[in-house]
Specification:
This protein is an alpha/beta fold. It has helices spanning 7-27, 43-59, 74-85, 105-111, 123-131, 139-151, 170-179, 194-198, 244-250, 261-281, and strands at residues 3-4, 33-39, 62-68, 92-95, 159-163, 183-187, 203-206, 224-227, 231-232, 238-239, 253-254. The strands form three sheets. Strands 1-11-8-7-5-6 form a six-stranded parallel beta sheet. Strands 3-2-4 form a three-stranded parallel beta sheet, with helices on both faces. Helix 1 runs parallel beside helix 10 (261-281) and helix 2 crosses helix 10. The longest helix is centred in the N-terminal third of the chain and has 21 residues, at 7-27. It starts with a strand and ends with a helix. The mean pLDDT is 98. It binds ligand BQF. The site of ligand BQF has 10 residues, from helix 2 and helix 10.
Length: 284
Amino acid sequence: MAKLIDGKAVSAKVKAQVRDEVSALKEKGVHVGLAVVIVGNNQASRVYVNNKKKACAEVGIESFEYALPEETTQAELLELVAKLNGDDNVNGILVQLPLPKQIDENAVINEILPEKDVDAFHPANVGHIMIGDYSFLPCTPAGIMELIADTGIDVCGKKCVVVGRSNIVGKPMAMLLLHSNGTVTICHSRTENLKEICAEADILVAAVGRRDFITGDMVKEGAVVIDVGMNRNDEGKLCGDCKFDECAEKAGFITPVPGGVGPMTIAMLMKNTVTAARIKAGIA
Ligand code: BQF
């Protein structure tokens, strides 16, 4: 029976550290600010943005919300980003995804100054991560590395399987596991023998976006199972990509949903925002 990995507890530790860093910076006259941009009326996005603003308040980061209407044009959003790029009170710029269909997400990401790109989605930052020489890590994969560390299990030499190949989670996740000397396999919707590959994983990261996708027979006895899914079941309850009960029976460690990866994503965003402020102030 698996031990639960407590994302709330680990995220509280990270946020406490960030809070101390923010107050130390304040004593040196350095202010930390995060611009949070939301476009349209996506309900889930509103919840995520509220979580981020609440975390800012907890750690002493000033947040500036920009809520734009659903019909905002790409030019208007690019103009706002350009303004925030030039705003000295803003150390980090977060544009909540997804964006309405008339807006090209990549065009917006490309407009954010890399040194303010606290999501680490800009191609310059993606490149830094690929090389292993970076200031910011993408929040969700970085948070997952903290959760794995919390289990006490060393990634070095382990078989790591990432299911999902998004630019936001799957691809950078694989890279971070590789930097920690894991032996990494990335699986996706076209993968053959998915079950067999997953069942060999010492560390299994499920970032598929489909509830109940990972079943107990895909989990190796004693494995670390990280569930990145944020789905809703028929009753509207939050659930992950793993059939929790089945997977927990086999796993050594497993993250719950909610209370696993989600809180870590937020905590790592706070950490990146302080890092941005520190770099700008020239305090290593
Ligand atoms: C929790 C996200 C999919 C697509 C875009 C805490 C969050 C979620 C869950 C949260 C997510 C997911 C965020 C819990 C931010 C994580 O207690 O389990 C926090 O706010 N997240 C996002 O900004 O964009 C997404 C998932």
